[in-house]
Amino acid sequence: MAREGRLYQKIADVIRQEIAAGDYDIQFPSEKELCERFQVGVGTIKTALALLTREGQIIRIPGKGTFVQNANLRAMLAESRDTEDGGLIGVILPKIQGPLFTHLLTAIIFTAERHNFRVILGISDGESTKESRVIQDLVERGARGLLIWPVDGEQYNETLLRYHFDGFPLVLVDRWLPGIDIPCVRTSHEMGAAQAMDELVRLGHQHIAFLSVGSENPAHTQSIQERLKGYQRACIEHGMPIDPKLIWIRPRRVAEDMAVHVNWIAEQWQANPHVTAALAVETYDLECIRQYAMASGRRIPDDLSVIGFDGGELVADRMAGIVSYFGSQDWTWIDQNAAQIGETATSALIETIQHGKNSEAVIIPTHLRRGHSTGPRPASEQWASESVGLNP
After folding, report:
1. What's the CATH code of the domain at 29?
2. At what angle do helices 338-355 and 98-114 cross, to 10 degrees?
3. Is the C or the N end of the chain the one with fewer CB within 10 Å?
């Protein structure tokens, strides 16, 4: 990696010197020609050109090619697009399924349009390598700044850090990078979990489980860890012990069937029949609880109260089978105000693009939305512990 980094910088140095010496006309060599000249792969050339683009040495116009910056080029650009057009904003999300991402993206697009910017979208699928490719692709396509929902992991994405340290306008959404001063707009996951716990305690529940079976790597997922902190903080504030037996976290393995997770949840409840409520961190977890309740004969909310995150009804998603039962019903949930996050983050990025001013981190408050998946603690907490008869 270090050798490759030095190589693209050396290539950029050579081209930069040639531009200063007037060795190029407006038109610039193609990536293929540069690969052949420097005997390197296309990835190294793309990185070198992205660096020169950020420096203002060259400009890349989709469908027209790469050009050396000069007065004639600026005139060409003025003729090729509306002078009131602010340009492109790149948006990188792990996915666009479900209410949270749909409302977030809609707000981003509408806010960008109000400022005469257009949005180009890239999907990372939650993979760091793909996230790097998408970052480079959107910059090469002319994005003047990026809104990124970054991939969780043990290590930060090197491509993301490189663009940040080079001064490229970036704003993070939902997840932040501790120790790195990239502005981030998000809600407080800890606050949201504490609000959910306050509601369950208000209803009389004393034995509340914390559930996460939908994430492949919960130990390195910031939202899950923050929500766990909120759960534990609320336990302390309400004088309840933090019982490790009620923290039900199981990494979701690739290609596992949901029935495996439902059975695992059943085992936890059988071992802890006094539990009458659950805080689920993701929609997937909620659906697993629902299936467990159906199989065991438990009724929501008469026997079991459930609170989760990211609700709201999207008819199109429900018809496509994307949103779970809880995502389309009148249930109790923590609203992360996705639309406000999208609007605030987009405005911050545009401010950075236009005025070179980095915004501060912004935390949007969460709100409890009461529905019909929560109710008073049942009179009898001792549920039967027989097997629910599920098949793994």
Report:
1. 1.10.10.10
2. 40
3. N
CATH number of the domain bearing residue 153:
3.40.50.2300
Report the alpha-carbon distance of residue 266 to residue 295 in Å, rounded.
9
- 201 and 157 fall within a common domain: no
Q: Is residue 100 part of a domain?
A: yes
Q: Are residues 170 and 97 in the same domain?
A: yes
Beta carbons of 146 and 162 less than 8 angstroms apart = no
Weakest mean pLDDT among 9-13, 96-100, 169-173, 371-375: 96-100
Of 66-80, 169-183, 298-312, minimum mean pLDDT range: 66-80
In angstroms, rounded to a whole number, what is the distance separating the alpha carbons of residues 344 and 117?
15
Please give the Cα distance from 392 to 387 (Å, whole number).
Answer: 13
User: Which burial class, exposed, middle or buried, applies to 166 when counting CB atoms under 10 A from its CB (0-12, 13-18, 19+)?
Assistant: exposed
Regarding predicted confidence, which is higher, 178 or 14? 14
Residue 229, both tokens: 């902190």
Cα 152 versus chain centre, distance: 9
Which pair of tokens denotes residue 160? 């993301």
Residues 221 and 312 grouped into a single domain: yes
Contact yes or no for 24/68 (Cβ under 8 A): yes
Domain that holds residue 33: 1-80
